[in-house]
Every structure is written in structure tokens, then in C-alpha cells.
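Below: protein 1.
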Amino acid sequence: YCFRAIECTAEAGGQICVIHPWNNWSPEENAQMYHSMLPFAKACGIKIATENMWNWDPKTDQALPAACSDEQSFLANLQAVDDESFVACLDIGHAEMRGLHTTAEKMILALGDKLQALHLHDNDRHYDSHRLPFTMDIDFEAVVRALKKIGYTGDLTLEADRFLQTYNADTVAQGVEEMAKCANRIRDMF
């Protein structure tokens, strides 16, 4: 499925295809997987981005570490692949989940120029809520300050799919308008 995702990204005119690491694999194990895809991605003119993931502990009701879930793990996964066509996609909401002991701001600053894609959504800093930015508890002013500090020039992708689920077929256009306002607000912060 990953090769098809790379192919579809190229066909759609994209430049980066986000492919999740396996949560419980070591950086070296994930690197083997990514190395098997990179020649095809390069032939398609596509970069592959790995994303910060999480596991869940129902006993403590919080996120547990997984591949790329904190700065050290993310950097270790990037270094294990060590290829200019392998970059980072930071999921802002994942970075702010209780139990992972990091923040989006810390991760942005640690990733620096390897950060070339973002998944933007908000949460209560506990659950992976995928709500529209500025509607819950993540400090997007701190996020944007950190992005400015590293000179971020990549895409900003709203990943607020649960927000749109609150609309029906007759009102979904209103939801899309709200998303556009949010995207413009973030753009204006830059």
C-alpha cells in the first residue's frame, strides 16, 4: 500500500508522502522499511516523511511512547535512515498528548530543517481529538513562534477530520468555511 500512496502523491502533484513508522519497531527496523521504499519514491520525485506516533495505555488513560513520539526518538529514526529524501512530518496534536512528556514547540525546535510537513489539529492535551486549531488547549502561538524560529517553509495541513464529522451533508460547506478561516488565521500568524 505504501508504494501506491507514493505513486498517488506524485500523480496528485504532491512533494511529500507521509508514511507512518511501525509504532513498536526500533529506528533500525523502521529504517529498513523506509530504505525499501526510498528508491521508488525518488524515482517518482517524492520525499517520504515519517510522523510522530503514540501507543495508548488504558490503565493509566494516557499515551505511551512509540516511534518518533518524542524528540530523541524522532531524531533517532531520522538518523537511522539518513537520506535527504527522508524528512519529518510533525503531528501537532500527537506531540501534545499526556504521557509523552514533550510539546509541539520542543519537537519543532529539535527537528529543525528536517521538519518539512505538519499535521495541524487541536486537542485537550490528553486525547488525540483531531479538532480544529484554536478550539481546545494547544498553544498555537507557541507553535508558530517555534516554526518561525526554524524558518519553516513547508505545508500546513489541517487534519481536523473529527471536526467535520459534526456536520451533515447539508451543512458540511459551513464546516469547510470554518476550516478555511482557521487556515487563514494560522497563515496570518506567520
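Below: protein 2.
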Amino acid sequence: INFGRVKIKIDKTSLRQSVIEQIQSLDKIARDENYSIKHVKPHGALYNEAAKDYKLAELIGECILAINPTLSLWGPPQSAVEKAAATLKIHFVAEGFADRTYQADGSLTPRTASNALITNEAECLQQVGQLITENTLIATNGKLIDCEVQTICIHGDGPHALLFAQAINHYLHKQAILLKSPHESA
């Protein structure tokens, strides 16, 4: 519903089944293309709810363990997802967003807010640069938030996705910042 960006009521059994089926379907598609998935990242409302709800984050982690315990789990830093991953001994990768604003508590600004999306390239680059070089970001209320991340997300369905990706790539190369998979060893 609405590309997963709307919170829906679903019982835990149905959700567990849905998450497992989605991961297995993606894994099959990847294997058919001679590729292997390396991580799971909940999307949309599930991502935002799991960030706050430990039991929901734990359910997602348990689905990963049931399918392939070598998969990593991506989510917001300092979230219930990170805590659940640590408890379940799942490799966690903290993610920051290039094209979304943040609230003072470190959560993403709800999409219903007029300032939820970053649509300006300069603002995008400022946020990405700050996330990568200072491990912080500035919330919509001006508060400085600690936010150490290992990966940056750009919403591929956004109107500025390609422009932002190109600009970020150029910025990172210009700053001599090494790009590598979070699954590579140091």
C-alpha cells in the first residue's frame, strides 16, 4: 500500500510470513541473476516503526536468522533495529539519508510534513558531507544530532535521485573519501 510508506495493521504471524516471503523472493531473483543478497533493509513504514519498536525490529532480525544468518541488517543508528541486531548477533549497518530531513530525536521527518524531503542539491551535499566527515546532522529544529553511519540512502523513486547520486559521487571523489561496501573488511 502506497509503496510501503503507509503504516498498516498486520498481526505478527502474518508480518513474519510476509517478511520471510519477501526476502526469499528477492534472494531467488538475485540468484537467478547470479548475484547474492548481502543485507536486508526494511522499507518505508516498516523501517520507521522498527526503528522505534524493539519487538518489531527483533521480529525482522529473527526472519533474517531463519533465512540466512550471514545477511546484515541495515537501519537507523541508535535505533531499536541496531539494538535488536546486537542482541541477535546480526551484523548491523547504520544508514543515513541524503534526501530526507530528521527530527530532534534522530527519526526521519514524517513524509506528511512539508519539510520531509530534501530537494536542493546543496542541502543534500551538506547533509551527506556532515554525516560522513563529522558523524552528525542538523535536525529540522536546528539541534545537532550524533549520527554515525556506514552507508547513505537516496530514494531511487525521488525526482532528484540521479542528480543527487551523481553529485554525491563527485563530492566524495573530490574529498578523497573512499567508497566501499560495508561488507568489505577494512
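The mean pLDDT is 93.
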